[in-house]
Amino acid sequence: MVILLAVLVLGGVVWLVRSRDVPGRRAHADTAWAPTRPFEGRTITGAEIAGGKIVVSGLTKHYQNVKAVDDLSFAVEPGRVTGFMGPNGAGKTTTLRMLLGLVTPTAGTATIGGIRYADLDQPARRVGGVLEASAAHKGRTARDHLRIICRATGVPLARADEVLEMVGLAAAGNRKFGGYSLGMRQRLGIAAALIGDPQVLILDEPTNGLDPQGIRWMRDLLKALAAGGRTVLVSSHLLSEMELLADDLIIVAAGRLAAQGSVASVAGSISRGSRTLVRTPDVAKLTAALDSEAVVTPAGTGEVYITGADAAAIGDAALRAGVAIHQLVTQGPDLEDAFLELTRGKAAIR
Ligand SMILES: Nc1ncnc2c1ncn2[C@@H]1O[C@H](COP(=O)(O)OP(=O)(O)OP(=O)(O)O)[C@@H](O)[C@H]1O
Ligand SMILES: [Mg+2]
Questions:
Q1: Strands of the 54-63 sheet, one edge to the other
Q2: Quick one: 185 and 293 in the same domain?
Q3: What are 3-34's pLDDT values in tens digits?
């Protein structure tokens, strides 16, 4: 009995130590859809960071009558999340496919650390690409699918479990791919891209099909990857998501560059400056109390937009005039306005 007890205790200790040893493994994989553990990748070295810069120069792809990408040039910096945006048919997917060596450019170059994807040594360890929700054999489990990629990439098979855990699919790893939902396929595609622990990640519309937890998770993952020195280039239509996720933006329209820069600079480049939304029961009295530079425009019932006076000036004027203020909200430049303006007239499907 004592021996049996000793064996059980020893077994428990060994199990505990082992479960701590395995990177990425948690005591319980009960949060299949919303992993809370932050991404713990290896530390990216200074030399690698320099090798993660993406440069697109004069990139062009013509299909019969369509100039899918037309003399496009931009740079994507390591350590930042760069949003790649544009209307439908603007040439985003074609550009990303050229970056990943899947489409041959008509002219121009697309390089990663100065080297074309096709010429990279061990490309899967340098660049992870997710161009569409993962495709795999319907009858194969997600874990087996990833193990096959591990073998092809030359990394230990245990990496399959690590990436399953990272993307929140640990509990579904032994299920067949045929039964996976769109969001699960999207996660599996990201898992596959992460297998080689690459310096550069290129993702085409990765939030398609993800639920709100999934979108939050994706945002946290991509931000953590960039914070660790990786280069993250991600295309999306979701302006509000890009405002939360991206540091920099590249906007394309009709195959050409429309804008490039930080989110704030792109949003501020075209659209109006700051304005203040004011809700008050006495618009007329407040308007009379404001300085002459203030411009008041109606925003809705009992609501106005005020420019030319900041929130403090408006609040002070209201106090002096004895006018009640029910809401006072300063609104910065609007990315949606800027996007629509920058792509105006070029959004037609070609
Ligand atoms: N293989 C192809 N053959 C012919 N035309 C193509 C091909 N691939 C893309 N195109 C055309 O090139 C243009 C750009 O397409 P692309 O898929 O790059 O746009 P996108 O910006 O990714 O659009 P979306 O936002 O809808 O995903 C479109 O007019 C498209 O029809
Ligand atoms: Mg596309």
A1: 66-76, 54-63, 107-112, 115-116
A2: no
A3: 544 444 444 433 433 333 333 333 333 333 33
